[in-house]
Amino acid sequence: MTTLVLDPETVQLITKRANRLAKFLNIDADKFFSLLPHLSKKQIKLPKPTNVASYIDHTNLHPYATKEDIIKICKEAKEFNFASVCVNASRVREAYKQLKDTKLKVAAVVGFPLGSMQTESKVFESVQAVEDGATELDMVIDVGKLKSQDYKYVLNDIQSIVEAIDPEVHLKVILETCKLDEEEIVDACLLSVLAGAQFVKTSTGFSTGGAKAKDIKLMKSVVGENREVKASGGIRTYESSLEMILNGATRIGASKGVQIVNEERNKDKKNNKKEEKKHNFADVSMALGAGVIFGLTTSFLTGKKRIKKEKKKGFFQFFKN
């Protein structure tokens, strides 16, 4: 386990926004803080990073994705043992068909990519996706409503989906962080927690920016240990994936999952070779050292015998004379 320490400024910001939202929503502020026990501890325990494949939602959200494209990502997901595949709602049936005999999850996007349709439409889309085999949903909030401070609308938008689906189906709330400032990111995370969502997620990958480590850290600082953070948008390398994980992400949304895992494997191979060279060098050094010691010892003993022999020879020579 590793620990994410919350700096005083972040705790102050979250506390301030929680109190403000409580007034807007006309709810007891204590209700917020009962969901955020980590604020008083000022730290969050993070799981120890494991192999990157287990974090990846292998993604194809291209509007023109064919049946063959979906079969391909499902095949790759099985081969590399990714966390899930993430597809558009109309592709869920095919993904489920390919993965139903595995432990891999099928995630469907909802209200994607704009998030500005009616809540009823999002609920219908969510229910249908679950019926088709989705076990996770990635829904986009109405960013315009959030920026307009229509917090009741945003809360209801998320909560309506939570209440419409089975509790076993996890909801990830996409914030589109590139369009939000720090206060709005905190507000969106607080509303997601209050609504009962299991995840908050950075981006659709269809806007002007993607995941940033500082946003992941802020989001994790808000939702704490009992909720998760998904980083998505522009993540194409092992290094960038690891950076997100170390800042609190437990899922990585990426269309380059295979490339990312291969980078990790190549890095592991290089590290193993370095370790092997170190061990070989150490073995050679020990062998050389042992050889030198043996040589010196042998020379010493041989010399000692010669001296003894010479002394003995000299002793008998004395009596002969």
Question: Care to describe what's here?
Answer:
The chain is an alpha/beta fold and 321 residues long. The protein has one domain (2-255): Aldolase class I (TIM Barrel). Helix content is 56%, strand content 14%. It contains twelve helices and ten strands. The strands form two sheets. An eight-stranded parallel β-barrel has the order 3-4-5-6-7-8-9-10, surrounded by seven helices. Strands 1-2 form a two-stranded antiparallel sheet. Strand 9 (228-232), helix 11 (238-246) and strand 10 form a beta-alpha-beta unit. It starts with a strand and ends with a helix. The model has no long low-confidence stretch (mean pLDDT 91).
Architecture (CATH level 2) name: Alpha-Beta Barrel
Counting structural domains, the number is 1
Largest sheet: 8 strands, parallel, barrel
Residues in β-strands, percent:
5-15%
The CATH superfamily bears the name: Aldolase class I
Shape estimate: globular
Helix fraction by DSSP (H/I, runs of at least 4): 55-70%
Which blocks of ≥5 consecutive residues have pLDDT under 50? none
Structural class, from helix and strand content? alpha/beta
Quick one: CATH class? Alpha Beta
User: Strand order of the main beta sheet, please?
Assistant: 3-4-5-6-7-8-9-10
Give me the number of helical elements.
12
* Average predicted confidence as pLDDT: 91
What is the chains' assembly state? single chain
- Our measurement of the CA-to-CA distance between the termini, rounded to an integer number of angstroms, reads 87 Å
Number of strands: 10
Instruction: Report Rg.
Output: 31 Å
**Might you state the CATH topology name?**
TIM Barrel
Helix/strand order: EHHHEEHEHEHEHHEHEHEHEH
